[in-house]
Amino acid sequence: MARALTGIREGLQMSDPQWSALKDLLHRRRVRLMPFQVAQQTGLPEKVARALMLRLHLKKPGSLYLNVYHACGEVPVAVIPFGESFTDEECPECEEAVEPDELTYEIALHLDEPLEIE
Ligand SMILES: [Zn+2]
Protein backbone atom coordinates (compact mmCIF):
# COMPACT_ATOMS: atom_id res chain seq x y z
CA MET A 1 0.00 0.00 0.00
CA ALA A 2 1.34 3.41 -0.94
CA ARG A 3 2.03 5.94 1.76
CA ALA A 4 -0.81 8.19 2.80
CA LEU A 5 -0.84 11.67 1.28
CA THR A 6 -0.50 14.32 3.97
CA GLY A 7 -1.51 17.96 4.17
CA ILE A 8 -4.64 17.44 2.11
CA ARG A 9 -6.98 19.05 4.63
CA GLU A 10 -4.75 21.98 5.59
CA GLY A 11 -6.44 25.36 5.38
CA LEU A 12 -9.72 24.04 4.00
CA GLN A 13 -13.04 24.48 5.81
CA MET A 14 -14.19 20.94 6.46
CA SER A 15 -16.05 19.17 9.24
CA ASP A 16 -14.91 15.81 10.62
CA PRO A 17 -17.84 13.94 8.98
CA GLN A 18 -17.01 15.58 5.63
CA TRP A 19 -13.37 14.55 6.04
CA SER A 20 -14.39 10.96 6.87
CA ALA A 21 -16.71 10.85 3.86
CA LEU A 22 -13.87 12.07 1.65
CA LYS A 23 -11.49 9.44 2.99
CA ASP A 24 -14.07 6.72 2.34
CA LEU A 25 -14.70 8.01 -1.15
CA LEU A 26 -11.00 8.02 -2.10
CA HIS A 27 -10.62 4.57 -0.69
CA ARG A 28 -12.69 3.01 -3.42
CA ARG A 29 -11.08 1.38 -6.38
CA ARG A 30 -11.72 2.14 -10.02
CA VAL A 31 -13.67 5.28 -9.57
CA ARG A 32 -13.91 8.42 -11.66
CA LEU A 33 -14.91 11.46 -9.71
CA MET A 34 -15.91 14.93 -10.77
CA PRO A 35 -16.18 17.86 -8.36
CA PHE A 36 -19.99 17.75 -8.25
CA GLN A 37 -19.85 14.06 -7.31
CA VAL A 38 -17.27 14.65 -4.58
CA ALA A 39 -19.52 17.48 -3.34
CA GLN A 40 -22.63 15.25 -3.38
CA GLN A 41 -20.96 12.41 -1.56
CA THR A 42 -19.14 14.44 1.09
CA GLY A 43 -21.39 17.45 1.61
CA LEU A 44 -18.52 19.80 0.77
CA PRO A 45 -19.15 22.83 -1.46
CA GLU A 46 -18.18 22.11 -5.05
CA LYS A 47 -15.40 24.72 -5.04
CA VAL A 48 -13.81 23.08 -1.99
CA ALA A 49 -14.12 19.69 -3.72
CA ARG A 50 -12.37 21.12 -6.77
CA ALA A 51 -9.59 22.67 -4.65
CA LEU A 52 -9.09 19.31 -2.92
CA MET A 53 -8.84 17.47 -6.21
CA LEU A 54 -6.21 19.90 -7.50
CA ARG A 55 -4.31 19.49 -4.25
CA LEU A 56 -4.42 15.70 -4.61
CA HIS A 57 -3.02 16.12 -8.09
CA LEU A 58 -0.11 18.21 -6.78
CA LYS A 59 0.68 15.53 -4.20
CA LYS A 60 0.20 12.63 -6.57
CA PRO A 61 0.30 13.63 -10.24
CA GLY A 62 -1.11 11.35 -12.87
CA SER A 63 -4.62 10.71 -11.66
CA LEU A 64 -6.27 13.96 -12.65
CA TYR A 65 -7.85 14.38 -16.06
CA LEU A 66 -9.67 17.10 -17.88
CA ASN A 67 -13.01 16.39 -19.48
CA VAL A 68 -13.44 18.59 -22.54
CA TYR A 69 -16.96 19.55 -23.60
CA HIS A 70 -18.00 21.09 -26.88
CA ALA A 71 -21.06 23.25 -27.37
CA CYS A 72 -22.65 20.42 -29.42
CA GLY A 73 -23.47 18.24 -26.41
CA GLU A 74 -23.23 17.37 -22.74
CA VAL A 75 -20.92 14.38 -23.09
CA PRO A 76 -17.16 14.98 -22.98
CA VAL A 77 -15.69 14.98 -26.48
CA ALA A 78 -12.23 14.27 -25.05
CA VAL A 79 -10.59 13.24 -21.79
CA ILE A 80 -6.98 14.38 -21.49
CA PRO A 81 -4.37 14.27 -18.71
CA PHE A 82 -4.55 17.42 -16.58
CA GLY A 83 -1.89 19.86 -17.78
CA GLU A 84 -2.18 18.92 -21.43
CA SER A 85 -4.25 20.91 -23.86
CA PHE A 86 -6.95 20.01 -26.31
CA THR A 87 -5.46 20.74 -29.70
CA ASP A 88 -7.96 19.18 -32.07
CA GLU A 89 -9.17 21.61 -34.67
CA GLU A 90 -12.28 19.56 -35.25
CA CYS A 91 -14.72 18.24 -32.64
CA PRO A 92 -14.49 14.41 -32.46
CA GLU A 93 -18.28 14.25 -31.96
CA CYS A 94 -19.90 16.66 -34.40
CA GLU A 95 -16.84 17.10 -36.66
CA GLU A 96 -17.37 20.86 -36.78
CA ALA A 97 -14.42 23.26 -36.52
CA VAL A 98 -13.81 24.05 -32.86
CA GLU A 99 -13.72 27.64 -31.61
CA PRO A 100 -11.98 28.07 -28.24
CA ASP A 101 -15.02 29.79 -26.70
CA GLU A 102 -17.20 26.76 -27.52
CA LEU A 103 -15.16 24.52 -25.23
CA THR A 104 -15.67 24.03 -21.51
CA TYR A 105 -13.64 21.93 -19.13
CA GLU A 106 -14.05 20.09 -15.86
CA ILE A 107 -11.55 18.09 -13.88
CA ALA A 108 -12.05 14.40 -13.11
CA LEU A 109 -10.07 12.23 -10.72
CA HIS A 110 -9.46 8.69 -11.95
CA LEU A 111 -8.57 6.32 -9.16
CA ASP A 112 -7.31 2.89 -10.17
CA GLU A 113 -6.31 2.09 -6.63
CA PRO A 114 -7.43 3.34 -3.24
CA LEU A 115 -5.93 6.66 -2.23
CA GLU A 116 -4.98 7.08 1.42
CA ILE A 117 -5.10 10.59 2.86
CA GLU A 118 -4.43 11.91 6.33
ZN1 LIG B 1 -18.97 19.09 -31.21
Give an account of the 3D structure.
The two termini are 14 Å apart. The chain has one domain. With 118 residues, it is an alpha+beta fold. Helix 2 packs across helix 3. The mean pLDDT is 93. Strand 2 and strand 3 form a beta hairpin. The protein is built from three helices and four strands. A four-stranded antiparallel beta sheet has the order 1-4-2-3. The protein binds zinc ion.
Distance between the termini: 14 Å
Q: Report the structural category.
A: alpha+beta
Strand order of the largest sheet: 1-4-2-3
Mean pLDDT: 93
Mind telling me the C-alpha Rg? 16 Å
Global outline: elongated
Tally of individual helices? 3
Largest sheet: 4 strands, antiparallel
Number of domains: 1
Low-pLDDT segments: none
**Percentage of β-strand residues:** 15-25%
Q: What is the number of strand segments?
A: 4
Helix content: 25-40%
Associated small molecules = zinc ion
Pattern of helices and strands: HEHHEEE
Short summary of the structure?
By secondary structure, this protein is an alpha+beta fold. Helices cover 28% and strands 19% of the residues. The longest helix has 14 residues, at 46-59.
Using brief descriptors, characterize the structure shown.
alpha+beta; 118 residues; binds zinc ion; elongated; four-stranded antiparallel β-sheet; 3 helices
How would the blueprint of this fold be written?
Elements: H1 16-26, E1 31-33, H2 35-42, H3 46-59, E2 64-70, E3 78-81, E4 103-111
Antiparallel strand pairs: 1-4, 2-3, 2-4
Bound molecules: zinc ion (ZN).
Zinc ion (ZN) binds next to loops.
